[in-house]
Design a protein that fits this description.
The chain contains 12 helices and 13 strands. The chain has helices spanning 18-27, 63-67, 86-106, 143-161, 181-189, 219-231, 248-255, 264-276, 284-291, 299-304, 313-326, 342-348, and strands at residues 8-13, 33-40, 51-55, 72-75, 111-117, 166-172, 174-176, 205-209, 213-214, 216-218, 236-240, 246-247, 258-262. α1 packs across α6 (219-231) and α3 (86-106) runs parallel beside α4 (143-161).
Length: 355
């Protein structure tokens, strides 16, 4: 495990989201962390004297000043909606991220840890997991994948221009915890799924698209991976996922139901119709990218960072379902449940339209 004896003063951009709240908890109380500055668009609840919060919009606020007193910047901020307006997400996710990276360099930050994703990878080979050397060209039709891949290219150039800055890219699988389930429903499923349908006993048959396979990891285990990366001297990319791969069999065992294979083109056609009618927020292009994701080899994170997930991928998915059934949520603004106005407010503001 590559470790560093020096302590860290950390700024977390996007500290109130699914991963951000887990990273904050992982760092809180660590003796090697001198201070935490939490940056977000919306004010979180009181976080304690060891955490300083600052309202921050990466598109327009002074980031150099916010980074002046830290040596480590963790960039987690991301805008998933409006899914029908990729220019808006590009301005925040790509141009805003570039502002974060450049401000970190201008402020003299020595460590930059960025939230990449499995979606940055090009479509993967069948039958084997890929290492961090697999091409990161994404799936160009999907905005999320395209934006993640573009930032990988930007960071390639950034690292050559700033060899004195240690850059880490965390390429995570799907990240779940009970507190994030309602946010993820709002972002990807929409208001028309009753929470009760997440109960296995109500699903005697589970329709699933052919070719379904994905990796998952508990968000709190991801928070720990970030903590280890922040405190290490390691550079480069790390794949972060738990075992086993989630497929037909794993979901059937998890939900105690019989899976029924549905042709992927049919699923896509239904999703496209629903998306075009603003009934669901997730686009059919994102579904295309999802089916093409490679499976990741996590050996480097385990060996170099000493990271090992405490929960399996199926436990992470089970926690998501539990959080969805109970609408658990959290006091953090993005994870709040229920939102003021509830699902009627989701409909009023436009499914997939709310930034």
């Amino acid at each position: 495990m590559a470790t560093s004896a020096s302590s860290r003063r950390v700024a977390i951009v996007g500290a109130t989201g699914n991963i951000g709240t887990s990273v904050v908890e992982a760092l809180r109380g660590d003796p090697h962390v001198e201070g935490i500055t939490a940056l977000s668009r919306r004010q979180p609840p009181e976080q304690g004297p060891e955490i300083q919060w600052e309202r921050t919009d990466v598109r327009e606020d002074d980031l150099v000043g916010r980074f002046a007193s830290v040596d480590t910047v963790v960039h987690l901020g991301w805008l998933f909606q409006p899914t029908h307006d990729p220019v808006t997400t590009w301005r925040t996710n790509v141009l805003g991220s570039i502002r974060v990276f450049e401000a970190a360099a201008a402020a003299g930050v020595r460590h930059l840890v960025y939230a990449s994703s499995v979606a940055a990878y090009s479509p993967g080979p069948a039958g084997r997991a890929v290492s961090e050397t697999w091409p990161t060209h994404g799936w160009p039709a999907a905005a999320y994948s395209r934006e993640k891949a573009y930032l990988e290219r930007f960071l390639d150039s950034f690292e050559r221009q700033h060899p004195d800055i240690r850059v880490v890219r965390m390429r995570t699988a799907f990240c779940f915890k009970p507190e994030s389930a309602e946010q993820q429903r709002r972002l990807f499923i929409g208001p028309f799924l009753p929470n009760s349908l997440a109960r296995p006993e109500l699903l005697p048959v589970l329709p699933l698209p052919t070719g379904l396979r994905f990796q998952a990891v508990h968000s709190d285990d991801v928070g720990e991976a970030y903590r280890l990366a922040i405190l290490s001297d390691s550079r480069g990319a790390f794949n972060v996922a738990a075992d086993p791969v989630v497929d037909f069999s794993a979901l059937a065992d998890l939900l105690h139901v019989r899976p029924a294979a549905v042709p992927a083109p049919l699923v896509r056609a239904v999703l496209a119709a629903a998306w075009n009618l603003h009934l669901v927020p997730a686009s059919p292009d994102l579904f295309d990218a999802f089916l093409r994701l490679p499976m990741m080899d996590t050996g480097r994170a385990r060996e170099e960072l000493g990271w090992s997930p405490r929960r399996s991928s199926t436990e992470a998915v089970a926690d998501f379902l539990r959080g969805l059934r109970s609408a658990t949520g959290d006091s953090s603004p993005p994870l709040r449940s229920p939102l003021p106005g509830g699902r009627l407010e989701e409909l009023r503001t436009g499914v997939g339209q709310r930034p």
